[in-house]
UniProtKB/TrEMBL annotation:
One of its GO terms (molecular function) is DNA binding. It holds the Pfam family Response_reg. This is DNA-binding response OmpR family regulator. It comes from Spirosoma utsteinense. Keywords: DNA-binding, Phosphoprotein. SMART domains: REC. The keyword Endoplasmic reticulum does not apply. Residues 6-122 form the Response regulatory domain.
Length: 169
C-alpha cells in the first residue's frame, strides 16, 4: 500500500477549499489553511508537506509572499507550489513563475485537472529523504595540504623521476 502525499491547501474561500478537499482526499492528506500567515505557522511548526496549493489573494499574507517564504527557506525550498487564482492575465502568471511557483491554474478550475497537475509535479519532485541526504553530507577534513604532484608510492616516485630524467635529455 502506498502512502498518501501531504498537501497544504491555502485558500480563504471555504467553498473552494471544500471542493478541493472532497476531490483530493482520496489521493492526498489535505491540511487547510485559511490565510497565508496560518500556512507559514504550519510550516514553521515542522509539519511536512509534499506540495503547497495556494490562492494568490489571501488575507494578511499573499500567495506570492508565501511562495517567497518557502523559496528562501533551506528546509522548504524543495516543496512544489501550485497557484490557483482568478487572475487570468499573462503578466500575473509570468510573475508567479518568476517568483518560484511551479505551476499555475486559473479559476474556475476542474478538480480533476488540479489532481492530475499535483500528481505530475510530485512524480518529478525529489523526496524530502533525498533532499536531506544531499543537504547533510559531511565535509571531508583536510589532513595536510600536500602538492598534488608529491609521490605517494615508491613506484610512482620512480616513474616521476624517470619522467624528469627523460625531460632533461
Amino acid at each position: 500500500m502506498t502512502t498518501k502525499h501531504s498537501l497544504l491547501l491555502v485558500d480563504g474561500n471555504p467553498y473552494v477549499s471544500g471542493i478541493l478537499v472532497q476531490s483530493l482526499k482520496a489521493s492526498f492528506n489535505v491540511t487547510v489553511a485559511n490565510t497565508g500567515q496560518e500556512a507559514v505557522r504550519l510550516l514553521m511548526q515542522g509539519n511536512r508537506f509534499d506540495c503547497v496549493l495556494t490562492e494568490l489573494q489571501l488575507p494578511q499574507l499573499s500567495g506570492l509572499e508565501l511562495t517567497r517564504f518557502i523559496r528562501t527557506s533551506r528546509l522548504l525550498k524543495h516543496i512544489p507550489i501550485v497557484v490557483l487564482s482568478n487572475a487570468s492575465d499573462s503578466d500575473t502568471r509570468i510573475n508567479c513563475l518568476e517568483q518560484g511557483v511551479d505551476s499555475y491554474i486559473a479559476k474556475p478550475f476542474n478538480p480533476l485537472e488540479v489532481k492530475a497537475k499535483l500528481t505530475a509535479l510530485l512524480r518529478r519532485a525529489p523526496s524530502p529523504v533525498e533532499e536531506t541526504q544531499h543537504a547533510f553530507v559531511p565535509a571531508r577534513p583536510q589532513l595536510e595540504s600536500k602538492p598534488l604532484w608529491q609521490p605517494k608510492s615508491r613506484i610512482l616516485s620512480m616513474i616521476l623521476k624517470r619522467y624528469t630524467v627523460l625531460q632533461r635529455m
